[in-house]
Amino acid sequence: MVVLLSAGGAGYASAASITNSGSDLRDGWYPDQPKLAPDLVGGGTFGRLWSADVDGQVYAQPLVSAGHVLVATQRNQVSSFDAESGATTWSRKLLHPTPFNPLDVSCSDLLPDIGVTSTPVVDRATNTMYLTHKTYASGNSGAAVYWLDALDVATGADRAGFPVQLQGAADNLPGVTFDPKYELQRPGLLLMDGVVYVGFGGHCDQGPWRGWVFGVKTDGTMKARWAAAYGGAGIWQAGSGLMSDGPGRIYVSTGNGGSPIAPQAAPGDVFGESVVRLAVQTDGTLKAMDFFAPYDAADLDLYDADFASGGVTSLRDDVFGTPQFPHVAVAVGKAGYVYLLNRDDLGGMATGTGGGDRVLSRMGPSGGVWSRPGVWPGDGGWIAIPTASPAGGDAPASGGSAGFLKLYRYRKGVDGVPSLDAPVSSDDAFGFSSSAPVITSDATTSGSAVLWIIWAPGGSGEGAQLRAYDAVPVNGHLQLRQSWPIGTSAKFTMPGVGDGRVYVATRDGKVMGFGAPVQADVQAPQTTFPVTTIGTTSHADVKLTVGPGVTITAVGASPSKFAASSGGLGLPAAFPAGGSLTVPVDFTPASPGIAGGTLTVTTNKGPFTFGLSGTGQAAGALLTASPPTVSFGGAVVGQQRTATVTFGNAGGQPLTIQSLTPPGAPFSLQGAPAANAQIAPGDAINVTVTYHPTAAGPAADALTLNTSGGDKTVGLSGRAGLGPHLVVAPGAGWEFGNVPVGSEKTVAVTLSNTGDSAMTFTRSKLPTHPALTALDALPEGATVPAGESFTVHVRFAPTAPGTVADHWSLNAGDGTGVRDVPVTATGTTAAAGPGAPADPGAPADPGGTDVVGATAGAAPQVPGLTPVPIGAGLTGQDVRAPGAKVDPGLVITRVAVARDLRRLTVVGLSSPQATGSLSLTVSAQITTKKTVTTVTGRRLRGGRFVVHINLPSKARSWRALKVSARFGGNARVAAGSSTRILSRAR
Q: Considering Cα of 280, then 286, then 287, then 289, what sign does the dihedral take?
């Protein structure tokens, strides 16, 4: 079950712990499972090895450690089973065993008990299992309590100093105290740098609740209590664990309960509907450093289409990273959009083009998601996402309440921007509460990967199956290798993996081990019935392949909507030389939607079970709509965008359209059905919605269809802006005039973004003439926020007389295409007149905008602030590391001081390959003889960086500030430094 990184590094995936989803990246990949080869899994000798009972429902993923299968239940029981035989090695109740009653908070989501809900984590170094459980302070009612337990994996005994009660006030909000009654601990635990991190959300939105993250050292010392500032922003993630892509970095996704106010570039006080990156501070507390929220997060709240219903998954750098964007994550939500995010700059809220999302890619809508993605890094990279509601264009055959398992091919664009291909969908539908996928393989060997998932027909979990698919589509289809009935599954609970076996725990208190070899005396395929109208019956003949020496004594099917007929089979029947037997099975649905069942064959060699599935269709007309909400993203004024809304009839009778209420401008419809038009059973119509904004700002409306089969309202949202706009000053570019041979001249050109959206340079090709040197780096992928500018200095040092004509080729993504900014210069043998010769001793223009007390992007308005010349090194002095191949491109582009002189903001750029330690030194000159120095360190991850530095009180009376950034270099990139100086007039 342990994830080990391949040579060369693939991003951070700690091998120190055994954890939810295989690694701290939460990608569900188990690369050390060569025994789970696809041919073996589907070959007939792979199946259920053993089954054992536990006390209570199991929502935690089973973990495999040192030959033990560890299972924790909602009745606060923890058990260890021998991974091979299923024998119980130990089982115990926790020290505070009484589970919490969810009816205390009027929530029937998890009944009847809440004890251990999340997936524990195992510290491999100490063989210690950490887990949380909910109970009461005393007795069977009253005040609720959450405990963090630490158990010896070998014996189940408590470790010294545990359990630890999770309680107290938030570090970041001293007036806010943790109230365990209203909190649910659902996400898997994270063990990082000797601290166990625990995330919390709410019960059925019963308040007051809020998102919390606790951090407890492995010796029991409390280190961190972080809380979302306002009620809501619960962290539940459908059970997926808190994600980390490196030491000191934690990513969480939050649900409803208030969203940030758009636009917003940096974390504020509100964190609902967001992905948030928390950083561990020097004292162990947590601080929000970056975030992303969809531009229409408030509308998602309104339509119960929460973003972040499945956690955050980090994609491995060596497979999915590009030079421009080496660190990528994927996030999903109920609205059905799949987001690729830049982990170095998540994107804020409404900071993209037209006030939309500033993300690497957004795909969809492809059906609502209650699951984290699963990732197969082999074969070029694939991402698997199960959906639980239909996407636009999906047929309504599933009853309108189910989705499909979808596989996305990952692509790296020629511009370095990653994207996803249109997904390949499973042939049959998946119901709500199906699990997240896990992928097993022999490293990244092509053809070795199997995708495992627990298929559930609906929220009850009744009739669930463990399924095994090929992790890559075959001829455009998902290939099902095999399936096995498991009884009643728990919501979203994924299989565990270890030592060539797969383990499943269920809502009806079972733990099962699957592997090879099993005695395959009776075999049968997965049987799927056609869509069947309620009150009618569909029939299927299930062909059993029977081994020699088998006697079949009985056949049966469950639950009652399935029936197997043994009449005419001549049972008991003996098969001394093997053979086959065809069993008639009927499906009679009692309600609409997907149904799962089990065919049981009783023999002299034990029972054999096989999966059944079907879909019930309403007898009358039944209207479906997909997707439930359409998000058009950010658009530029005058731009037109379209989307498709599908209205279907999942019933057994024709559906009559009674009326349609269209949206108003800037939305319009094409293909809208007329009153009295009909939709046949199982059929659908598509309506095209167009968003054509004529003014900047947000827009929201809805499309409502009233029919004889019910009414549906689809929410619409969009946001428009002017977009980015590049202005080059001076417009003629870099004009050097005449410069004598043997001397040099530096000229500055400022690139300003006068639009209202961030401007990203997708092309930046430097002039190539040997006499020209760019002193500032403008790497491809660099971003200039709206209202800000970046100054580029070019030095001309002619070695021979003559005219030089070159250019800097740019594409700022502002719709104007590639722009060649001219560079013109003439080398002369002597001074060519007044003003023409360069003065080698003149200082270079520092560029940028250094402002005291001004807002970002504003022109300098504070009197008395003047840049202090410090020579040609003002914009950075590169220091070459031995053997380095890449220029670090390190430059401080802007320094700003808050009006109260308490905080300093440093903005800069670096090469995308520049990853490593960045140190910033601030020297505050107080008097001619007194200087106060502050040193700050952070992680440089390439591209744009923003660092906030709190000035000590004794430094706030500065006369001059010297700010120096230093990058130490790495194996591929040289070291570099950059310095800026501010002075304040007295």
A: positive
d(CA 232, CA 271): 8
Residues sharing a CB contact under 8 Å with residue 782, sequence separation 6 or more, in sequence order? 760, 761, 764, 790, 909, 943, 944
Tell me the pLDDT band of 114, cut-offs 50, 70 and 90: very high
Which residues touch 870 (CB under 8 Å, ≥6 apart)? 843, 979, 981
Q: Indicate the residue type of 870.
A: I
Structural contact between residues 338 and 936, judged by C-beta atoms closer than 8 angstroms? no
Phi, psi of 286 (to 5 degrees): -115, 145
Q: Are 16 and 125 in contact (CB under 8 A)?
A: yes
Angle CA(534)–CA(540)–CA(544) in degrees, nearest 5? 145
984 touches 960 (CB < 8 A): yes
For 780, residues 6+ apart whose C-beta sits below 8 A from its C-beta are 324, 415, 416, 761, 762, 763, 764, 912
Q: Are 705 and 711 in contact (CB under 8 A)?
A: yes
CB 885 within 8 A of CB 972: yes
Chain centroid to Cα 813, Å, comes to 26
d(CA 766, CA 810): 9
Considering only CA atoms, which of 744, 761, 859, 874 is closest in space to residue 819? 761
pTM given for the model: 0.75
Q: Give pLDDT, residue 573.
A: 95
pLDDT attached to residue 399 = 46
- Which residue intervals of 345-395 are DSSP H helices? none
Half-sphere exposure of 941 (CA within 13 A, CB side): 20
Using CA of residue 924, residue 926, residue 930, residue 932, what is the dihedral sign?
Answer: negative
- Cα-based distances in Å from 96 to 76, 116, 188, 463: 8, 12, 21, 33
Whole-angstrom distance between the N-terminal and C-terminal Cα of the chain?
66
Encoded tokens for 913:
């390959």
Condensed to tens digits (0 to 9), the pLDDT of residues 307-332 reads 878 889 999 999 999 998 999 999 99
Query: Which DSSP state fits 238?
Result: G
19 token code pair? 């954890």
- Residues in contact with 660: Cβ distance below 8 Å, sequence separation at least 6, in sequence order: 672, 673, 675, 703, 704, 705, 706
Place of tokens 């989501």: 109
**Quick one: how far is CA 799 from the chain centroid?**
54
Interatomic CA distance for residues 531 and 618, integer angstroms: 10
CA separation for the pair 949, 905 (Å, rounded): 6
